Amino acid sequence: MERIRVHLEKSCKDSYDILIGEDVMGRAELVTKIKNHADRYVIVTDSDVNPLFGEVVKEKLKETALPVDIIEIPAGEASKSLNTVLEVAKQLVELRVSRKSLLIALGGGVVGDVTGFIASIYMRSIPYVQIPTTLLAQVDSSVGGKTGVDLPEGKNLLGTFYQPKAVYVDLSFLKTLSDKDFANGLAEIIKYGIIGSHDLFELLELEKDGIKKRSPSLMKSLIARSCKIKADIVEMDEKELGLRRILNFGHTLGHALEASSGYSLFHGEAVSIGMVGAAKISHKLNYLDGDSCTRIIDLIKEYELPVKIPAGMETSRIVAFMETDKKVVAGRLHFVLVKEIGVPFVTPDIPSDVVVETIEELRG
Ligand SMILES: NC(=O)c1ccc[n+]([C@@H]2O[C@H](COP(=O)([O-])OP(=O)(O)OC[C@H]3O[C@@H](n4cnc5c(N)ncnc54)[C@H](O)[C@@H]3O)[C@@H](O)[C@H]2O)c1
Q1: Are residues 39 and 108 located together in one domain of the fold?
Q2: How far apart are CA 51 and CA 362, in angstroms?
Q3: Are the C-beta atoms of residues 222 and 248 closer than 8 Å to each other?
Q4: Which of 175, 191, 223 is the last residue of a domain?
Q5: What CA–CA distance (Å, rounded) separates 212 from 216?
Q6: Do the Cβ atoms of 139 and 185 come closer than 8 Å?
Q7: 221-274 residue pLDDT tens
Q8: Residue 47, in any domain of the structure
C-alpha cells in the first residue's frame, strides 16, 4: 500500500475590516480599499434597494475606473433559493465574471446570504464584500461569513462559511428603512446586550428615545458595539462548533414561533418572544435573578416588540418545530440561557415540562 499525504495545514488570511460611519459610501477609502480586490465589480442587490441605492454605489465604484454591473433579484425571503443562485450565476457567466472579479452584496440579509453563497461556489469561489442596508444586516448577517439559501424543507439548509473581504456599514441607509425592519434589527441588538454586554444593555435602556428616532450617533454606537461582540465570538468559533451558538439566544423558541405562525410573525418579533422565554427559563432554573429577568422583558416592551405568543398557536406544534431545529444535538434540544445580563451559556439540560410551562405562560 502506498500512502501519499496531502498537506493542507493552512495559515488563514481571512481577516477583514468592518467600517461603520455616516457617509461610508462617500469616502475615498471605499474605493481605494475595494480596488485591491478585483478587476471588475458586480453589485448584487434587490428590487427594493436597487432604486434607492444601486446607482449611488455604482457611481462611487466607477471612480475605480473598472467596469461595474448590477444584478437585481426580487426583494424578499423567497429569493433565498437555489433558483436565484442559478439565475445570478448565469448572469455572471454572461458578464464574463472571472475569479478576479468582486461581488458586492448591497442589501439586507437576503441579498447578503445569497451573494455570499454564490461568491463561495462560483468558479470555486470569488471574493465578495458586504454593503448591508438593513439594521439586521448591519449588526448581524453581514458579519461572520455565514452564507446560504433556503429549501422548501427549511431555512438556511444549504450554505457555506465564507468570509467577505470587507463590510461597509453606512448609517445613511437606515433613513429609508421601514419601522418593521428597524425593529427587526433592534431585536438583535437587544440580544447582543443580553448575551454580550451589560453596558450595551444599559445604553438601550437609557437612550431609548434617541434610538427610536434613529439618532446617527447612537446608531453608530449600537452597531459598532454589536459588530464587535459578533466579531469577537466569530474569531473564537468561526464554524459554530461551540461558543458561536450563544448568538442563538432567543432563537430556539423564536424560530419555532416563526415557523408555527407560517412566517406571519416577523423574525424580530419571534426572537423577542423567544428572548422572553429564554429569560424566564433562566429564572425558573435559578440561573437568573428575578430583577434581571424583569429588566429584559421591560426592555423588549420599551422597543414595542412583542413579549407574548399570539393566539392560535398550539404548544405541541411549537415544541415539534423546536425539536426539528438545527439546535438539536444528539436528540437533545440545546437552549441558550443567561446567568446574568451579559453572561450566557448553552445547555441541553432543560426539562421539557419547564419549556411547555414557559410557552403556556407566554400566551397573551
Ligand atoms: N448570515 C447570517 O449570519 C444571518 C444572520 C441573521 C439573519 N440572516 C438572514 O437574513 C435574512 C433577513 O435579513 P433582513 O431582515 O435584512 O431582510 P431582507 O434582506 O429581506 O430586507 C428586508 C426588506 O428591506 C428592504 N431594504 C433593505 N435595505 C433597505 C433600506 N435601506 N431602505 C428600505 N428598504 C430596505 C429589502 O429590499 C427587503 O424588502 C434572513 O434570510 C435571515 O435568515 C442571516
Answers
A1: yes
A2: 41
A3: no
A4: 175
A5: 11
A6: yes
A7: 999 999 999 999 999 999 988 889 999 999 999 999 998 998 899 999 999 999
A8: yes
**Is position 255 annotated as part of the catalytic site?**
yes
Nearest to 34 by CA among 101, 92, 116: 101
Is 75 in contact with 48 (CB distance < 8 Å)?
Answer: yes
Q: How far is Cα 43 from Cα 105, in angstroms, rounded to an integer?
A: 6
Q: Which residues contact 87 (CB under 8 A, 6 or more apart)?
A: 73
pLDDT at 27: 76
362, 277 contact by CB (below 8 A): yes
Task: Indicate which CATH number applies to the domain containing 137.
Answer: 3.40.50.1970
Catalytic, out of 188, 245, 280, 284: 188
Task: Out of 175, 191, 218, pick the residue that ends a domain.
Answer: 175
3-class SS of residue 359: helix
Is 4 among the domain residues? no
Q: All 3 cell numbers of residue 22? A: 455616516
Number of domains in the chain: 2
The tens digit of pLDDT for each residue in 295-343 reads 999 999 999 999 999 998 999 999 988 887 656 666 677 889 999 999 9
Active site residue 214: no
Say whether both 132 and 203 belong to one domain.
Answer: no
> Going by DSSP bridges, is the β-strand pair 328-329/332-333 parallel, antiparallel, or unpaired?
antiparallel
- What average pLDDT does the segment 165-170 reach? 94
What is the value of pTM for the model shown? 0.95
| DSSP output for 146-215 | EEEEEETTEEEEEEEE---SEEEEEGGGGGG--HHHHHHHHHHHHHHHHHH-HHHHHHHHHTHHHHHTT-
Residues of the domain holding 224: 179-236+243-361
Burial class of residue 325 in the structure, from the number of CB atoms within 10 Å of its CB (0-12 exposed, 13-18 middle, 19+ buried)? middle
Test site for ligand 1: of 77, 110, 246, 251, most ligand atoms within 8 A of the Cβ? 110
Between the CA of residue 29 and those of 22, 80, 142, 167, what are the distances in Å? 14, 31, 19, 13
Q: Give pLDDT tens digits for 123-146.
A: 999 999 999 999 999 999 999 999
> Residue whose CA is closest, atom 25 of ligand 1?
48
Dist. CA 255 → ligand 1 center (Å): 16
Q: Round the average pLDDT of the chain to a whole number and report it.
A: 93
